[in-house]
Amino acid sequence: MISAVGQTILMMTSHGNVARLLYGIVVMLPPSAAVFIITCLLTAIPTVIVVWFTEEFHIRAAGFFACAGAAIGALCITVLLQSPAVWTSGLVCLFVVAGFVAGLTYWFVMCELAAGEDSM
Fold it and tell me: How confident is the chain (120 residues) per 10-residue block, as mean pLDDT?
């Protein structure tokens, strides 16, 4: 999202100047890649811990996965933007909702895969 917003602003401010637009795209590639990699690491490591924990203790509750996803979303934005204003701006709510949905999605996929294994 950060890169998409940046690219959109760049397109609007280039006023049809293709060279300026291409220069901006090239300049934004390294920061966009860095944000992508950091975000992947921030979500992958806690997610692996949650998946290991749920497999170890045979937890299959949708609420657990939804809450774990929400917590991971809150953790990510808190680490990425270390400012108290993040919590008062409502930005955390977007990440919490995204994590909540991601947790439920993982739970749904996990249930579907388990059902597929049981039918074989």
Answer: 76 81 84 85 91 93 96 90 84 93 94 78
Neighbour count for residue 96 (Cβ, 10 Å): 20
Neighbours of 70 (CB within 10 A): 21
Rg (CA), the chain: 19
Residues 34 and 38: their CA atoms lie apart, in Å, by: 6
Q: What does the alpha-carbon distance between residue 92 and residue 100 come to, in Å, rounded to a whole number?
A: 12
Locate 82 and state its tokens: 């270390």
Structure tokens at 61: 């509750």
User: What local confidence, expressed as pLDDT, does residue 107 receive?
Assistant: 94
> Structure tokens of 19?
């060279």
Helix (H, G, I), strand (E, B) or coil at 22: helix
